[in-house]
Amino acid sequence: MSDVFNSTIEHLEKELLGLHPGRVTPAVLDDIKVKAYDTETELNQLASITSQDAQTLLVQPWDASILKDIETALRDAGRDYNPVVDGTTIRLVFPSLTEEKRKELVKRMQQRCEEAHVSIKRIREDIMNDLKDKKKNGEVSEDEFFSEQKDAQSIVDEYNKKIKDIAQAKETELMTI
After folding, report:
1. For the chain, how are helix, strand and coil distributed in percent, rounded to 5?
2. Please, what is the angle between helix 142-175 and helix 99-136, to 10°?
3. Are the C-beta atoms of residues 33 and 42 closer than 8 Å to each other?
4. Which of 93, 108, 135 is the last residue of a domain?
5. Domain co-membership, 149 together with 164
6. Do residues 29 and 59 touch, judged by C-beta distance below 8 A?
7. Strand partners, 50
8. 142-177: per-residue pLDDT in tens?
9. Exposed, middle or buried by CB within 10 Å (0-12, 13-18, 19+), for 90?
10. H or E element: which one contains 65?
């Protein structure tokens, strides 16, 4: 049962890797999709993405013919990216974060944490419905039903606390200058 909950936490942690205030990481571009070859593909499947320094990412497509497609995807990502084409590579320079940008990152982090809470809630509902079906079919007794229900709720509470702890730690990281 805890595998499903663990996968939610792992997914959240992966999502939050892209929100890093001090040093820009290639994970920032993980959710960028590029329309190339008549299909949408994740950027990291089409190019090498490396950190050139603390504020600059270098995107080097494996096929130079899709350079314009990648540039367009970065401009249209809605994140104030200003890609600079430099021959066969694209440079993305990220300015130092202002307090306003840090607060925006915290908002995005909170949205992702809320999505994780919703995921945990859905898993809980599935478990409770399964337990109700087992009780209805006579597979578990009344006492077992309430005991398993209580166990499931304690696991849900534990994972919700993990999400809250992750959010607090990430907010501290994002707001520290």
Report:
1. 60, 15, 25
2. 170
3. yes
4. 93
5. yes
6. yes
7. 58
8. 889 899 999 999 999 999 999 999 999 988 888 876
9. buried
10. none
Type of residue found at 146: F
CB atoms within 10 A of CB 166: 18
pTM above 0.85, yes or no: no
| Encoded amino acid at 89, one letter | T
Whether residues 85 and 71 share a domain: the answer is: yes
pLDDT digit string, tens, across residues 10-67: 988 888 877 766 677 787 888 888 888 888 888 888 888 888 887 888 999 998 888 8
Show the domain range for 130. Answer: 2-13+98-175
Verify that 29 and 73 share a domain, yes or no: yes
In the block, residue with structure tokens 């997914």 = 11
CATH number at 56 reads 3.30.1360.40
CB 21 within 8 A of CB 97: yes
Q: Is residue 18 part of a domain?
A: no
DSSP secondary structure letter of residue 54:
T
